[in-house]
Amino acid sequence: MNDDATPMEFKTFEAAFAWMEEVVDDPYIDNQRSCYTELPDQVAAFLEAQRQGCCGSFDADVIINGLPARIGCNYGH
């Protein structure tokens, strides 16, 4: 993330996932997850996917097309 902890901004979740893959830099990324943080159903699905992950994990607050969101994955299997 940015040094000042300001969420990175992206136009799409796909662009945010591309950034995440560069940051994680692991060939075994799976369990990619995302949600808009203001939508409770999406947050619940995100948290369930997060709970089902194993090994290393990465989660980040981001802004997608102006809206607060969160992305994540597991890696290192």
Spatial shape: globular
Total beta strands = 4
What is the averaged pLDDT score? 94
Largest sheet, order of strands side by side? 1-3-4-2
Strand content: 35-45%
The proportion of residues forming helix, as a percent range, comes to 25-40%
Please give the count of helices.
Answer: 2
Number of domains: 1
Straight-line N-to-C gap: 23 Å
- What quaternary form is this? single chain
Using the CA coordinates, give the radius of gyration: 12 Å
Biggest β-sheet description: 4 strands, mixed
Task: Please identify the structural class as seen in this structure.
Answer: alpha+beta
Give unreliable regions as ranges: none
**SSE sequence, one letter per element:** EHEHEE
Question: How is the secondary structure organized here?
Answer:
Blueprint: E1 8-10, H1 13-24, E2 30-36, H2 40-52, E3 56-64, E4 67-75
Parallel strand pairs: 1-3
Antiparallel strand pairs: 2-4, 3-4
